[in-house]
Amino acid sequence: KELTPLPPAKVDHPIGMPSVVVTSVTEVDHAMLVSYEKKGVEVLQVTTDPDDPQHVEHVVFTHKNHTDEYDVTPGMKGHEARKLRKELKHMSHKGQVFLYEEDSNITYRMKVIDPNKNTYNDVEVNELEIEAIVWRNQHDKKDKKKSVKG
User: Fold this and answer.
1) What's phi and psi for 132, nearest 5 deg?
2) For the chain, is the Cβ count within 10 Å smaller at the N or the C terminus?
3) Which of 48, 50, 110 shows the shortest CA–CA distance to 79?
4) Which pLDDT band, with edges at 50, 70 and 90, does 32 fall under?
5) What percent of the chain has pLDDT over 70?
6) At a CB cut-off of 8 Å and minimum separation 6, what does 35 contact?
7) CB of 135 within 8 A of CB of 59?
């Protein structure tokens, strides 16, 4: 009830952790990014699938008071998240760093200081702060690919 939607905007790059096939959104695509704010502070972003604008591709939680099912919150350091989720790995992609677990829909986008840096070791990632919690339905995409290949 306290969330106020901001006007939707076209997306020209992935916001969450990239899937195996990364594509850019072009002018003909219909992916939409809708941000919601609470008391003037953005709390979440919802992005639709460019192939199916009615289908949510991912949700990004940015508010510091959001807690996921593992008790991880934005603002937490990488090592704190890894204490709660022992299997977290990290990857760097296009100036962003993510903590993720292979079979999980939840990943963590880290706040990087130098977006031009391409590689990070575990010690560096452990000291980065979680900027956002990203939910992406990876399993749904895998199921769609299987049904198409049939």
Assistant:
1) -155, 150
2) N
3) 110
4) low
5) 63
6) 5, 6, 9, 42, 44, 45, 46
7) yes
